[in-house]
Structure formats: C-alpha cells, structure tokens
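Fill in residues.
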C-alpha cells in the first residue's frame, strides 16, 4: 500500500488536472467543463429562453449588436434594489431569428450569431460569416454566505481562440500591464485602482460584466478566461459586437450613459498642489500667472480648507471666501474645491447625518481616518440630497465652478478591503454593491448642480469611478501615485486601458503625488517635464503633488525647465479648436480622445501590444518619454504616412524608428490626411475670439475634420445652440473644401479667417503660428474650395 500525504495527494490531483486541461485545449470547448445539456428552448418577445439541466439561459436582443445574457435558477431570482448602472433599459424592438436542429440552437441578428450547443450548453458567438469570436463554455452559480446574506458566487468560463487576441479595458490598474492576455485583474475599488467591468477584445467583441459586487477577470491560462463575481443571484453580462473598439465603446455608453460636454475652460491648464494654505496664497498665485502671461484657466483648493470635515465652512485662513471667488473670476480663473464623503463629530452636519442614520460606518482607524469619523451613504436619496444641499449653499451658490470628490472608492486607508464589504447600505448588503459608491456620490453632486442651474456645466474630478460615472460629468484621476519614472510609465498603460473601457476623461497628478518631489533635484525636474509633456496630451491637463519646498507652479522649476513647461502649455491652448471639437465627438458620437493604437489598428499585432504610445484624437501620435536621461525613444508608426510635428519630415508607416527626444521634445507625429486646426495664442480659453485659425494640412491621403463651436459653458448646446463646420481634403485634387456652416448660437463668430498651411519640411511645424501660409480663406458660412 502506498501512503500519500495530503500535500502529495493535492500535487497529484493538480498535475492530473493540468494534464487534462492542456491535452484538451484544442478539443471541443465543453470537454474541460461538466456538460449542462439543453432540455428545451422557447422563443420570447426579445430573444430566446434556453432550459438546461441545471438552470435557464436567457439571450435577449437588446440591439442588433448587443445581446443581454443571463443564467439562473428555473424558478427565477429575487428582486433587489437597482445598482443604477444601466442608463437605458427601454430599447426599440430589434429584428432577430431563432432556428434549431438536433445539435444547435441559433439566434441571429443583423450583426452577430449566438449558437448554443445542445449537448454541452456552450454558447458560441460568431460573425455572420461564421467566424467564432469567443465561446461562453460554462456558467455556474455556487451557493455562498456573504456579509450575512445567503447568495451565490457567479462564474463564467470563456474559451479564448488564437495567440494574437489581445484583451483590454477593465478600468485603471497600476501593474504597468497594457494587454491583459494571460493576466488576472481584480475589479475592486481602491486608491489608484478603478474597476470598470468592460473587457474589449482585439478579436472584435466586448463583454460588459453587469455585476457591481467585487469581481475578477482571470486569464492566467491564456486559452481560458474566467469572469467571476462575489455576490450574484444570476450570471449577468452583455455581449457587445464590434468589430472595432469604437463600436464596442459606443455600445457601452449607450448602455450606461453618454458623457456630457465640459465647459471649454475645463480643457485648459489646471494649477494645483498639496495644498494651498490660505486665501492670500491662492490670490497671489493667480495674480502671478496673469502677470507672467502663462496660459491657465483653473486653480484648485485641495483638502482641509474647512474647519471640520463635512461642514463645508472655510477656516479662518480664508477670511472672505466670496471675495476670493470673485477675485479669481475677475482674473478669468475657475475654482475647483475638494470635498470628501467623510464627516467628523462637532458639526451640525455630522449630527444631522447621525440622527437620520445616514452613515455607513462611524469608526475607521488609520491615516486620516480617526476613530469617530463617519462615511455617509450616498445610496440613500435623502443623504445624497442633504450632502448636495450643503455643497450648494456653501460653495456653488457662491460661485465655485468645479468639484473635487476625493477618497470616493471610498478610502480604505487603515484596512485592506473596501469598507462596504462588511457593512450595510441603503440598497442592501454593501458586498452586493461594493463597486458603485463613486456612481451614487458623483450623481448626487451632478444631478444637484444640473437642477440648481443650467448656466454652468458640471465638472467633477473623482478618485474613483464605475460603469456609468461618465454620465455624471466625471474625470477620474489615477490616484495618489509616487513621484518616479517607473510610476510615470505605468500611468500610460493605466490611462489607455481606462480610455478603452469607455471612460473618456482621465488625468494624473503631473509629477506624482507622494515622495520624491524635490524641486532642487535635477532628476525630479526632468521627471516633471516629461510628465507635463504627457499631461499636455491627456484629456484633462492638471498638475498636482507634494513638493519640497511647497511650490508647484510652472515658474518653480527653474528657467530651463520653466520655458519647456510654458511651451507645452502654449501648445495645449493652440490646439484648443482641435481638442474642443473632439470633446463634441465624445458627446455626440461616443468617440474617444485618448486612443490606444489598437483602437485604430485592431488587427496589427504590434499595435495590439503597444501600450506606451497613443493617438490623441484622430490625428496626433503621442510618444511619452518615460526613461530617465533618455534623449531618444523607440516609436512604432502604424500603417499610414506620418509627419514629424516638429520638422515636417514625412515618414512611412509600418516601421519602428528611433525618434530624437531631447528634454524639450516630446516625439509627436501627425497622420497624413489630417486637417489640424490651431488657434491663436491665448492666456485663457475665452480670452478672445478663436480667430484666425491656422489649418495645417498634412498631404498624402484624403482627410476630414469638423470644427465645433458653442457658447462655451452652459447646457444650451443640448438644445441645439451650437455650430459645426465640416472640412474635407481631397489629396488627388489637392483641394480643401470647407462646407456650409450648420447650426448657430448667440455670439457666434459669423465671419472667420482660416490660414491654410500645407505641411512640408520646416514649413507649418512646431508650436508657433506659421510665418507664411498658402491661402487665406475668409469664410462667411458658405461652401468654399481652395487649392493651396
């Protein structure tokens, strides 16, 4: 008789299991999972209901490209309060057909097929031409007791085909990973990590995991993808047919809500640090920016401007808050103020929240969270309203322009796990809704401001987000990251995955927030310059951080670095016609500004695996320099013809080049066929009419651009008060056509001047307005064609 220890037995079982898995990778999908045969199916109004031995699989046709998949017990599932993630629940009927034979049941829409294998219950997703995209091979619910609730864990296993398939999205994570093929990602909110349950495949599909509990995406064995959730009464996800990532992102936003426009000022430069200590300091910084004529639109008051956290009362170092706000507005600054979801005793706000039972937890130890500090429950409508009413009375009605909703994961300092996991909230078990705190918190402020005024667009800077946060006017930032080159590099892939997760607005603390911010250290100055260059080509452009000494303004970094910083700040403002027009495309077309290469070159394997460069809108290829001391960097140019932004040199695509990158140069390339509008130099976004506009034409391909304009900061654009001017470059005919203006709004510039510049070596390059142009077009709203 052979005696085996428990450890030996487990090793044998593990080896046998791995043998079975590896030997069956290319066999039928169901071979590594218990079969769950189909026992019958019924066609329902919006899809099919498939009865299996162990449960019911329902496929609902949300649209021709969106299938809603649920799986649960035969008897149905209990009803729970909505997590509020889905913004659209009523869909027009979509055409589909259902047919079956002895082996399969097939549901077909105008864009995708869902094929269920009768013997195993596996669900394959196919193109209309028959290409298999992926297969939901097995799904199960495992009984569990979580946070005192009898529920289930949910799990779905997908078969992944082909070595070239890349997986992206899932929010923002800090491991420095771009392509998640072969990786595991926890979908759980915490400082620097943001959970967005959208997975995008280069194979042409997306999966939106419709479960707001703590979840996991596990692809460690690269042919197997497991999606699991800690709390569920049914498996619930949406299959999104592409094939292009832009289509998948558009489907996600149709499900969870569109992103509104920010005011034009929000796309300018934001000055911030940890932290301005007084009214006098804020006013002095603003005055110096204007005296030095450095472009800036916004200044930020970080934490502890209050007397007691939660009461939103300015401390004595701010003796005249109304005067402060008026002074900043007179200098054409907008003010953002940090407010937290925490309350401390000795304020009437704390007492009111406590008396009404609006706190999730009243004790948290560690860091900035002493015993007695309490976290409010934004899932309670009354608590949410009370929170906004305080902010409205104390801040918004006095003129505060934007909100910094810090620590809204919520903060878990002093404990490893999110505080919701073992507490109850108004909706029920916090574990069931563990990821949605930032949605309800930001919605309370966004909805409150929209109800209070339609004259000022909502802008919220949030340290966390979840699916649907984009509809609340949220920009997430990457959290309290370190100040070093390794951390800087990781922000690039973190931001790109966040963008392809359907979340259009994102930023970082330029220079990092924690540790190492020594202004007298040349290495830190280099880091700050390189990070600032990256920030100038991020959706929102903002400096922040803890510095020694406590300065973080652009003049703080010495004359050499300071000149570079101001140059990129100036370039950001010259590109405002381009950026603001792309912002309109985000809102009107569900587009994406910060674009990983896979979004435009999905089938290019090198583009799939490039996570350290990206397109900024349709035209500009950005290549951040993140190696200390580097004076060059490797750049992959995808399939297209390209122009060096700085020199006008034309280069072929589908090649890797070594680009010059001295400290003052961020390698930038513009795609042939681009029409790139650059406005005049300004000190704030609305300083003067955006005229003349320099239209830089990059020949070598046909191209289009649509210039967007509106009143800059109200919601009249939603009522049609905006204008667009479409332009087309015909490369063969060497002709630029500017179409008739569509739309109008009060204060619109009726007559415009366009300086048309045809790019060539050392002509139409760099930041400054070109000294000469090929044509000057005086545009009055009528169609005009020119040959530069």
């Amino acid at each position: 008789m052979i005696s085996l220890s428990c450890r030996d037995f487990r090793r044998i079982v593990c080896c046998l299991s791995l043998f079975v898995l590896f030997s069956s990778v290319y066999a039928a999908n169901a071979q590594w999972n218990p079969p769950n045969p189909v026992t019958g199916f019924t066609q329902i109004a919006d899809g099919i209901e498939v009865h299996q031995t162990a449960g019911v699989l329902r496929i609902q046709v949300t649209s021709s490209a969106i299938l809603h998949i649920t799986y649960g017990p035969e008897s149905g599932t209990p009803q729970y309060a909505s997590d509020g993630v889905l913004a659209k629940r009523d869909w027009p009927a979509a055409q589909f057909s259902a047919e079956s034979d002895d082996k399969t049941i097939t549901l077909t829409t105008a864009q995708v097929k869902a094929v269920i294998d009768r013997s195993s219950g596996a669900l394959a997703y196919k193109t209309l031409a028959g290409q298999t995209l992926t297969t939901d091979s097995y799904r199960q619910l495992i009984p569990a007791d979580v946070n005192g609730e009898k529920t289930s864990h949910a799990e779905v296993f997908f078969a992944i085909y082909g070595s070239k398939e890349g997986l992206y999205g899932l929010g923002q994570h800090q491991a420095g990973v771009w392509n998640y093929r072969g990786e595991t990602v926890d979908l759980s909110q915490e400082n620097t990590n943001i959970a967005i349950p959208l997975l995008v495949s280069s194979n042409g599909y997306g999966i939106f995991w419709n479960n707001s509990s703590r979840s996991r995406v596990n692809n460690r064995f690269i042919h197997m993808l497991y999606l699991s959730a800690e709390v569920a009464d049914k498996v619930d996800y949406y299959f999104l047919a592409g094939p292009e990532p832009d289509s998948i992102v558009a489907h996600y936003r149709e499900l969870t809500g569109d992103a509104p426009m920010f005011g034009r000022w929000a796309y300018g430069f934001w000055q911030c640090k940890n932290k301005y200590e007084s009214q006098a300091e804020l006013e002095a910084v603003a005055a110096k920016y204007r005296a030095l004529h450095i472009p800036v639109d916004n200044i930020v008051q970080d934490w502890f401007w209050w007397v007691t956290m939660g009461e939103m009362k300015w401390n004595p170092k701010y003796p005249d808050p109304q005067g402060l706000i008026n002074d900043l507005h007179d200098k054409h600054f907008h003010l953002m103020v940090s407010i937290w979801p925490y309350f401390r005793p000795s304020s009437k706000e704390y007492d009111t929240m406590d008396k009404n039972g609006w706190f999730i937890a009243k004790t948290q130890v560690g860091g900035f969270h002493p015993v007695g500090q309490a976290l409010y429950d934004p899932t309670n409508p009354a608590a949410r309203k009370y929170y906004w009413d305080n902010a409205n009375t104390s801040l918004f009605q006095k003129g505060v322009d934007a909100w910094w909703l810090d620590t809204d994961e919520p903060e878990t300092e002093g404990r490893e796990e999110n505080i919701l996991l073992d507490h109850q909230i108004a909706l029920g078990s916090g574990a069931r809704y563990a990821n949605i705190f930032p949605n309800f918190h930001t919605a309370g402020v966004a909805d409150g401001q929209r109800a209070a005024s339609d004259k000022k667009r909502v802008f919220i800077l949030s340290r966390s987000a979840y699916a649907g946060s984009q509809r609340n006017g949220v920009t997430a930032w990457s959290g309290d990251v370190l100040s070093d080159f390794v951390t800087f590099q990781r922000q690039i892939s973190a931001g790109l995955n966040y963008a392809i997760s359907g979340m259009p607005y994102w930023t970082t603390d330029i220079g990092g927030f924690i540790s190492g911010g020594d202004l007298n250290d040349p290495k830190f100055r280099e880091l700050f310059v390189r990070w600032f260059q990256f920030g100038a080509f991020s959706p929102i452009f903002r400096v922040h951080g803890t510095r020694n000494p406590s300065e973080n303004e652009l003049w703080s970094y010495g004359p050499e670095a300071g000149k570079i910083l101001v140059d990129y700040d100036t370039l950001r403002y010259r590109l405002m016609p381009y950026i603001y027009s792309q912002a309109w495309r985000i809102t009107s077309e569900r587009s994406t500004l910060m674009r990983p290469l896979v979004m435009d070159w999905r089938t290019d394997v090198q583009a799939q695996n490039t996570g350290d460069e990206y397109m900024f809108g349709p035209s500009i290829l950005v290549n951040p320099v993140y190696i200390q001391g580097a004076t060059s960097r490797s750049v992959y140019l995808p399939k297209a013809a390209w122009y060096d932004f700085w020199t006008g040199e034309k280069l072929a695509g589908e090649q890797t080049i070594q680009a010059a990158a001295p400290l003052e140069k961020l390698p930038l390339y513009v795609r042939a066929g681009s029409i790139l509008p650059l406005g005049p130099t300004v000190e704030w976004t609305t300083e003067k009419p955006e005229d003349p506009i320099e239209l830089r034409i990059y020949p070598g391909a046909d191209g289009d651009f649509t210039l967007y304009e509106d009143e800059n900061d109200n919601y009249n654009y939603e009522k049609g008060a905006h204008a667009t001017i479409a332009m087309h470059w015909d490369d063969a005919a060497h002709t630029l056509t500017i179409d008739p203006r569509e739309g109008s709004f009060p204060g619109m510039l009726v007559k415009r001047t366009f300086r048309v510049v045809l790019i060539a070596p050392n002509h139409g390059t760099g930041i400054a307005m070109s000294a000469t142009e090929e044509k000057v077009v005086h545009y009055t709203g009528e169609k005009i064609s020119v040959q530069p």
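The first helix runs from residue 6 to 23.
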